[in-house]
Amino acid sequence: MPVQAKDIEIAFDTTLMEGDFSFNSSIQDLTSESGIKTSVIISLFTDRKAEKDDVLPDSNNSDRRGWWGDLTSPETENDRIGSRLWLLSREKTLETVLVKAKQYAEEALEWMVEDKIVSKIEIKAERQGTIGNDILALLIQIHTIKGSIYTISLPDIINAVSSSVTFGGDGVLFGGEEVIW
Asked: What residues contact residue 117 under an 8 Å CB cut-off, 6+ apart?
């Protein structure tokens, strides 16, 4: 029977709203998981370099961000890690911003389908809350090759990607057949 590859699990403290590696004190080792949860977190919450025609959120800062490893990726030309969701950090929850958020999330996660890690990813961006206090949320369904479906709810995604360490709103909810967060 083949051994299933595992990744170090990234866990989130919903009180502190920050992520860290998960530690299993009973075995005195880092916790591992199937890799889907970790892949989604890294893909969405790592800043992808802005395109030349992207409008940066701070006109006084020309930093286009990006992951340094993209400069040296030998495997695939233009293979990039992360999302451009950070570009929406100062945006209002207008319909055009919802469309961009969906596109940026799709762009960040499309490698999982291309590399045949999952069979399909469905993303919905929506405005939640009352007018004036509304937030942009992402609802994501990940369909695995084996037929499992992971449902991910990311409330207040703009606040979440605006911070390098913490995640805002009501937290990040991740559920599925194998992953409960």
From this structure: 35, 36, 39, 145
